[in-house]
């Protein structure tokens, strides 16, 4: 081993603060970026934020075409934030029970998951309350009579049964199937059920249709997750046989330098204040530059996507072409990760409606002639074909393969069709059959 001083040239990527901020801003949606700008303005007095006048003027005027003295239903719109536990406790207040039972039922309420099921074993809750399981059953039964129907269930079977028992028109066969034949019913052993209950297959199918209308997670309607509103950041507009891409600048407040504070800090005699001013001015400049880079990147990506998917946007029967992140990245000379960040949680207002940019990328399926079709197009064809099929003789995967080959000129394996069905949430032909 030799010791000494040697000179060596190497290359390395240094992640500067400016670059890190630009990357973060690119992956933000318009709403997230607006929030980030407001937070930065609170920390940096030299940031001057101006809200878009267009946004303020069209905050809800675009939803109605009425005079100022008229009332719109939008004025009264609100989002219900009542949690499941609050909703159940309000019902408990109107119930005439002993103080002890009220306390124990409250404990059961707080032992529910957000979907309405018990979060822990029933026996464990009874043990914690120091009551017998018989007392616990009575308390739980009281809770299970609350709205929504099915709340307080220990499992899916009990949840469905509670909802069936609360129906105005009781369905005896459905209750029997859920109570005693749930496993066979779930695995579609309908012939076995029809023989055991001495009923027609069509009656089992009626039960299936009825159970599909029930809510397997009755508490989810009271989940406190906020509603997410989609704001398209770019517009893809047809123009003289081509497509134009515009970015909606008005969705994001404009950022500038507050010159009043800048002068005050620059004129201060204190070196520390002067250094502070320089630092804050640099932060404003970084922020402004990062926002501008973000805008330019999104527009570049949007224009490249529009060029590739031109037929899809302009033709009524147009389909998505196979497109990958790498193709767009190579075309506009950026990294794949940049394209990924520029399309995630970014929406475009297009002739086809509001679409997430990410969804315009789709994998390719090669046919026998070496031509490619997007997997998304194949899924759309499958959905249309299955929707129009004879439900008494549903199409098998093999028949879908044959149809795609003869009608669309696309060769797809049966395994791929099964995979696409699963992704679309479409059951197999045997499970789609109607009697």
From TrEMBL:
NCBIfam families found in the cross-reference section: rpoN_sigma
User: Which InterPro entries does the record associate with it?
Assistant: RNA_pol_sigma_54, RNA_pol_sigma_54_core-bd, RNA_pol_sigma_54_DNA-bd, RpoN_core-bd_sf
Per the similarity annotation, which family is this?
Belongs to the sigma-54 factor family.
A GO MF label: nucleotidyltransferase activity
Its name, as the record gives it, is RNA polymerase factor sigma-54
Q: Which PROSITE patterns match?
A: SIGMA54_1, SIGMA54_3
Its keywords, alphabetically, are: DNA-binding, DNA-directed RNA polymerase, Nucleotidyltransferase, Sigma factor, Transcription, Transcription regulation, Transferase
Which residues belong to any copy of the RNA polymerase sigma factor 54 core-binding domain?
80-261
- One Pfam match, given by its short name, reads Sigma54_AID
Species of provenance: Halalkalibacter alkaliphilus
Q: Which Gene Ontology CC terms are recorded? A: DNA-directed RNA polymerase complex
The UniProt record lists the RNA polymerase sigma factor 54 DNA-binding domain at 275-434
Asked if Endoplasmic reticulum is a keyword of the record, the answer is no
Q: Name one GO biological process term.
A: DNA-templated transcription initiation
């Amino acid at each position: 081993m030799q010791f000494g001083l040697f000179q060596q040239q190497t290359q390395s990527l240094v992640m500067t603060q400016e670059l890190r901020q630009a990357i973060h801003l690119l992956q933000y949606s318009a709403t997230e970026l607006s929030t980030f700008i407001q937070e930065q303005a609170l920390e940096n007095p030299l940031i001057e934020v101006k809200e878009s006048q267009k946004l303020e003027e069209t905050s809800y005027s675009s939803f109605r075409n009425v005079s100022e003295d008229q009332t719109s239903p939008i004025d009264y719109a609100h989002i219900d934030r009542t949690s499941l536990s609050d909703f159940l406790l309000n019902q408990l207040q109107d119930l005439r029970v002993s103080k002890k039972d009220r306390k124990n039922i409250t404990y059961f309420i707080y032992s529910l998951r957000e979907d309405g099921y018990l979060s822990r074993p029933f026996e464990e809750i009874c043990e914690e309350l120091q009551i017998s399981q018989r007392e616990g059953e009575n308390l739980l039964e009281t809770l299970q009579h609350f709205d929504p129907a099915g709340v307080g269930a220990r499992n899916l079977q009990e949840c469905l049964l509670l909802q069936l028992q609360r129906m105005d028109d009781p369905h005896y066969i459905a209750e029997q199937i859920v109570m005693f034949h749930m496993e066979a019913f779930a695995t579609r052993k309908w012939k076995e059920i029809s023989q055991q209950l001495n009923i027609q297959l069509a009656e089992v199918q009626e039960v299936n249709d009825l159970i599909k209308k029930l809510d397997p997670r009755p508490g989810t309607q009271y989940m406190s997750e906020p509603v997410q509103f989609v704001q398209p950041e770019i517009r893809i507009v047809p123009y003289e046989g081509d497509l134009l891409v515009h970015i909606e600048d008005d969705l994001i407040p404009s950022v500038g330098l507050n010159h009043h504070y800048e002068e005050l800090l620059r004129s201060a005699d204190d070196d520390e204040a002067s250094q502070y001013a320089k630092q804050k001015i640099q932060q404003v400049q970084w922020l402004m530059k990062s926002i501008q880079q973000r805008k330019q990147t999104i527009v570049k990506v949007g224009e490249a996507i529009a060029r590739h998917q031109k037929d899809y946007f302009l033709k009524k029967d147009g389909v998505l072409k196979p497109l990958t992140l790498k193709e767009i990245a190579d075309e506009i000379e950026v990294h794949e990760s940049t394209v990924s960040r520029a399309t995630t949680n970014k929406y475009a207002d297009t002739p086809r409606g509001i679409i997430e940019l990410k969804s315009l990328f789709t994998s390719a399926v090669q046919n026998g002639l070496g031509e490619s079709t997007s997997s998304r197009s194949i899924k759309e064809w499958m959905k249309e074909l299955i929707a129009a099929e004879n439900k008494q003789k549903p199409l098998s995967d093999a028949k879908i393969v044959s149809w795609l080959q003869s009608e669309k000129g696309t060769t797809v394996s049966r395994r791929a069709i099964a995979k696409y069905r699963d992704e679309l949430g479409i059951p197999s032909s045997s499970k789609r059959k109607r009697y």
